[in-house]
Fold:
Amino acid sequence: MDSVEYDVLVVGAGTAGIPCAVEAALAGARVLLVEKDARIGGTLHISGGHMSAAGTRRQRAKGITDTPERHHEDIRRISNGTAREDIVQRAVTLAPQTIDWLEDHGFDFAPETPVLMHEHEPYSVPRTYYGRDEGLSILRVLTRLLDEVPADAVELRTSTALTALHADDSGRVTGATVTGFSGDQHVRTGTVVLATGGFASEPELFEEVEGVPLVSAARPTSTGDGLLIARELGAGLAGVGRYLPTFGGMPDARNHQRTNLTERSSFFVSERAPYEVYVDRAGRRFVAEDHPSIDAKERALLATEQMTFWMVLDDVARRESNPPVVSGWSPEDLKDRAGKHPAVHSADDLTTLAELAGIDPEGLEASVTEYNAALADGRPDPLGRTIRPAPIQEPPFFALRNHGITLLTFAGLAVDADLAVCRPDGQVIPGLYAVGEIIGNAATAGNSFCGGMSVTPAISLGRWLGRRVGAFTHPG
Structure:
């Protein structure tokens, strides 16, 4: 095996890895940046690219008064104090610099930003930003910055994977093995940064770590490579038990462990009034379908068996729901797919529907009867639902199986406040660092979805860590 030497090895050329490599090079380090995919960018290819920051030039231009301290307070509130205080503090402090830095480098902001988003629990002020072309707007800036770094400062290799980490007898990292088109190569370096993302496309690892079954909407490359290899070196995990699903997606017709986001219902009442009821495997409703908090729906879903539920509706809902029940499907599409798509069933009575779908028939019959009776009698809904357009009574009836879906992972490598990877006892593995989703979304958002607290910390902390490790190799 041939051998090469670099000051810094950055593994993963995505949201965190690219800015880390760029800043390390600008600090004077000679950097090798490897990416197992054939193209750089990672999750930015599918991400909405939402970022959050307080105290930016764009906020001031719109007359919005905001501070990193207020941002941190909102994260505490939304996450119920479950995020890492030290990491969040650094992330929110750096965030306005990141947004201004992107602006300085020609980032194509959507003109309405910053905005107040309501997809999950909202912030107290408008501080969410995104580009006209979502995550790709970020990638264009990062790609341009990477291209501007001299080739002798950063060497980029795509289609090249990390396959091993090496350490001396004291436990200090001394290098790594990477594998590309030319085979294996030993990289001698005293500094390795893992920015390989999460593991939301690796079912066995996901169920082992997060403890729930996987239906993924993540990129296929999110397989936890960096985490698995770091564990072989003795790295510990953090954020275990913080998982929260994204509410609802039908398993893909070709692969039940994945979901197609282009064929998904809208669960936001502001976008579509619900005609249907949601029931679990026992046929019981488990949350008010018009609950204004998607966070509350996700927590209710987490408590169901295997995070599986069915949307049960009648033909009135199929015809009249606007927008349609499933985005991208017309009312006729829904009717035609019943019995053909493995998650969609139809029948002329609820008992047969339940048997086809795998729901308890008595439970489903009781839930729909109770829902209809309360509506007919003018009584409050048993779960507090107030939006009830019509009873569920006109056949044929439909059941659409949905599951809690996963876009990112909450658990990840244990790190200290400086992003050095730690063993289970808290001791640092010298020379090994991690940044981005590999440290787990729980580090920056806790047991919640905090707007922009995945993408922004990845960029901000990636830049910060790059400057730090670059300074190690070229002090002064």
Remarks:
- The chain has a mean pLDDT of 96.
